[in-house]
Design a protein that fits this description.
Oligomer: heterodimer
Structural class of chain B: mainly beta
Helix content of chain A: under 10%
Distance between the termini of chain A: 37 Å
Strand content of chain A: over 45%
Number of strands of chain A: 11
Largest sheet of chain A: 7 strands, mixed
Largest sheet of chain B: 7 strands, mixed
Shape of chain B: globular
Number of helices of chain B: 0
Order of helices and strands of chain B: EEEEEEEEEEEEE
Number of strands of chain B: 13
Radius of gyration of chain A: 13 Å
Order of helices and strands of chain A: EEEEEEEEEEE
Strand content of chain B: over 45%
Helix content of chain B: under 10%
């Protein structure tokens, strides 16, 4: 199983960024997927989850209305569209697979991609 | 949202000794439909993503050494490392997945004394 995030970088407050998570080594279309973030030197914060067929999506209150999670089961890729970025959105963003035996836990994680929000 | 509170915030234990980390949830994470506690533990080493250690409060993830064990029910949980090894130095997080949003504890930093 491998998850590889990309798309991070430096962005000004109020602007947008799209993160990608490319997956391999498992049946992508059968797995729910999460985004979890970690601000520098801080703890883990769950951001969003998308079901295997994209029929269900849930968001943390802190990003609801600004971030959109999506996936392309043909490209084995998940996305996080981040709009109206704030300084408090600066973090390493991890994608993670939902555990097949314990939905809601995350059994495989990517290495993360860093988002910096600064003018 | 369910608030997860870990104690202590940091811990120093001698090699070969037992390390114990506690986690308390603001409401029960015992799901009546399956009688399972929706509580997981993760280990995060510097510069690395988190690694799942335990789910259902006490089920070790595949490949996790048996010196790691989880216990507890309802609102009070414990992660125990029976004999601390140098490679166990890390930050440990508990996480509830009983309700959305899933929430993490603030983390406990484990060091060698």
């Amino acid at each position: 199983v491998q998850l590889v995030e990309s798309g991070g970088g430096v962005v000004q407050p109020g602007r947008s960024l799209r993160l990608s998570c490319e997956a391999s080594g498992f049946t992508f279309r059968s797995s729910a997927l999460h985004w979890v973030r970690q601000a520098p030197g801080k703890g883990l914060e769950w951001v969003a989850v998308i079901s295997s067929d994209a029929g269900n999506k849930y968001y943390a209150d802190s990003v609801k209305g600004r971030f959109t999670i999506s996936r392309d089961n043909y490209k084995n890729t998940m996305y996080l569209q981040m709009n109206s970025l704030k300084s408090e959105d600066a973090a390493v963003y991890y994608c993670a697979r939902d555990h097949p035996l314990a939905a809601g836990t995350m059994d495989y994680w990517g290495q993360g991609t860093l988002v910096t929000v600064s003018s | 949202d369910i608030v997860m509170t870990q104690s202590p915030d940091s811990l120093a234990v001698s090699l070969g000794e037992r390390a114990t980390i506690n986690c308390k949830s603001s409401q029960s994470v015992l799901y009546s439909s399956n009688n399972k506690n929706h509580l997981a533990w993760y280990q995060q080493k510097p510069g690395q993503p988190p690694k799942l250690l335990i789910y259902w409060a006490s089920t070790r993830e595949s490949g996790v050494p048996d010196r790691f064990s989880g216990s507890g029910s309802g609102t009070d949980f414990t992660l125990t490392i029976s004999s601390l090894q140098a490679e166990d130095v890390a930050v440990y997080y508990c996480q509830q997945y009983n309700s959305i949003p899933p929430t993490f504890g603030q983390g406990t930093r484990l060091e060698i004394k």
